[in-house]
Amino acid sequence: GSISGGAGWVFVGVGPAYLDDDSTVINPAAQGVLLTGARFAQSADGTTFFAEGTVQTLGLPGFELSGTAQVLFASTNGTGRTLVVPDGPDAGTEPDTINVPDTAGTFIKIIGLDLNVAGQTLSGDFTLEYTQERIVFGVENLSIGLGDGTTDFVTITSPASTFVYTTDCFAGYIDATINFNLLTTDVDFGNGLSGQ
């Protein structure tokens, strides 16, 4: 494998990712992970860093992944900090300003994640906040499908769930609905299970 890149894209795998110099025709024989629409920014003092792009897998049968990933890292505490990054996927054409949290840490968002592994599906919008004080994992618009690749026998949906870990405790909130689509009439859950 190898790592290659171009204007706004990075490919890790066996390829090349594209068949043309304009990076518009994907190589059907490529195998790996492609990051497109990539943009980066780092503060002048090197204490904060931001990266964003759309990730997708190429040529990996039984494993498909796509979504927009953002990573923001701050090595020190501070207030009123921002980073200016090249224009992204918004209506304007001006550079975008990213607000940096006051607390040092790593902050990750994966928006519109779609993962398919051997017919099992996972999708949603995920966040991870990792600081010295706590770890926070959140998910919105969660959908999980478990089945044989054609039929989902179990589906789990959740509009929002959050888990927080500190040195003092672990807490979580799950708002989810579980539905069963079983091939037998011997078991009946009615309209599924729901709870918080």
Structure in words:
This protein is mostly beta strands and 196 residues long. The chain is built from no helices and 13 strands. It has an 11-stranded antiparallel β-sheet, with no helix packed on it. The protein has a two-stranded antiparallel ribbon with strand order 6-7. A hairpin with a 2-residue loop joins strand 1 and strand 2. The protein is flat and about 65 Å long. Mean pLDDT is 86; it is low at 1-5.
Major beta-sheet overview: 11 strands, antiparallel
Instruction: State the end-to-end CA separation.
Output: 45 Å
Uncertain spans: 1-5
**Quick check: average pLDDT?**
86
Shape: flat
The structure class reads mainly beta
What is the strand and helix layout of this fold?
Blueprint: E1 2-6, E2 9-14, E3 31-42, E4 48-58, E5 63-74, E6 82-85, E7 96-99, E8 105-117, E9 120-131, E10 134-147, E11 152-166, E12 170-180, E13 193-195
Antiparallel strand pairs: 1-2, 2-3, 3-4, 4-5, 5-8, 6-7, 8-9, 9-10, 10-11, 11-12, 12-13
